[in-house]
Amino acid sequence: MPVLAALCGPAAGAGLPWTKVADVPLPGSTARFDYQAVDPSSHRLFISHMGAGTVVVFDLNGRHVTAALDGFPGATGITVDPGAHRAFVSVTGGWLASLAGGGKLAALDTGTLKTVWMVPAGRFPDGSAIAQGKLYVSDESGEQELVFDEASGRKIAAIPLGGEAGMTAFNARDGRIYVNVQTRRELAAIDPHSDGIVAEYPLPADCDNNHGLLIEPSGGRAFIACDGNATLLIFDVADKKMIGHFSTGAEPDVLALDSGRGLLYVAAESGVVSVFDVSAAGAGSKIGEEFAGGNAHSIAVDENTGLVYLPLRDAGGHPVLRIMQFKKP
């Protein structure tokens, strides 16, 4: 079977041993997609169709669209809590709404797909993470981390960051929330007990705009994408030191981790996906990268199957969900 470059466009860097499984048509316009989240309990993939103002729900087993939910203009981040059967959607309302502080946060029931609650959420709510029954949301242009009660949507705190908020992640090892402060080139740690910043870690000078963030389930390493200069940093959370530095495609955005297979995927606005072997301790190694499709900056992986999902805004005049299978060399 042909590799991704032959299917999707010109290669960028070393080729990857993966194949296209399917291109599934998606509803809506050829507008921007943003973040995705896999719900292992319902076997569904939740996709922010940011430009169309919808949340697309995709059945992972049947490989078909279950629903396209309206009422989420400028939807960005999505986080799933399988135990609570909730998907939390950051809704910016678009750029004009963000100027007036018109952001919202919504909770969806992952079974019924009904909106449980929707509350105001700063200027430009983006990524989020869960700790101790609370949802921590990056308010990017609001330069703060917002804290909400997961069950009710009640706002608990607003934590000033002193700069634009990048992505947010939970570290199971120390129980802290970490957030990129992208205009200060820092990684900030928040204690969920006090909802205050307890540490700030400066990043290397050659990291420009540390937006993307993912922390592995063990809590050992944080993976940080610097979108201004196509760089991936590997930060040892336990020892609080930088252990890895790699190149990516231009404007890296969303990261996805298949922890069972030891594979880290970094998707970029340029359409290039970079893949790293992080199965062993330490910095890991870069396997390669290739062009995955126009604006293929959003990526998710189903750890049960190892399949990779890339929503593409325009593939032959309509949006599709590109499903890929990667085979580790």
- Name the beta content range: over 45%
Task: Kindly state the number of beta strands.
Answer: 28
User: What's the arrangement of strands in the largest beta sheet?
Assistant: 1-28-27-26
Order of helices and strands: HEEEEEEEHEEEEEEEEEEEEEEEEEEEEE
Average pLDDT taken over every residue? 93
Shape: globular
Radius of gyration: 18 Å
Short account of what is shown:
The protein is 3% helix and 52% strand. With 329 residues, the chain is mainly beta.
Topology summary:
Layout: H1 4-8, E1 18-25, E2 36-39, E3 44-49, E4 54-59, E5 64-69, E6 75-81, E7 86-91, H2 95-99, E8 104-109, E9 115-120, E10 125-131, E11 134-139, E12 144-149, E13 155-160, E14 165-171, E15 176-181, E16 186-191, E17 196-202, E18 210-215, E19 221-226, E20 231-236, E21 241-247, E22 252-258, E23 263-268, E24 272-277, E25 285-291, E26 300-301, E27 307-312, E28 320-326
Antiparallel strand pairs: 1-28, 2-3, 3-4, 4-5, 6-7, 7-8, 8-9, 10-11, 11-12, 12-13, 14-15, 15-16, 16-17, 18-19, 19-20, 20-21, 22-23, 23-24, 24-25, 26-27, 27-28
Could you walk me through the main structural features you see in this protein, from its secondary elements to its overall organization?
This protein has 329 residues and is mainly β. The chain has helices at 4-8, 95-99; strands at residues 18-25, 36-39, 44-49, 54-59, 64-69, 75-81, 86-91, 104-109, 115-120, 125-131, 134-139, 144-149, 155-160, 165-171, 176-181, 186-191, 196-202, 210-215, 221-226, 231-236, 241-247, 252-258, 263-268, 272-277, 285-291, 300-301, 307-312, 320-326. A 4-stranded antiparallel beta sheet has the order 1-28-27-26, with no helix packed on it. It has a 4-stranded antiparallel beta sheet with strand order 2-3-4-5, with no helix packed on it. Strands 6-7-8-9 form a 4-stranded antiparallel beta sheet, with no helix packed on it. Strand 8 (104-109) and strand 9 form a beta hairpin. The longest helix has 5 residues, at 4-8. The protein is globular and about 45 Å long.
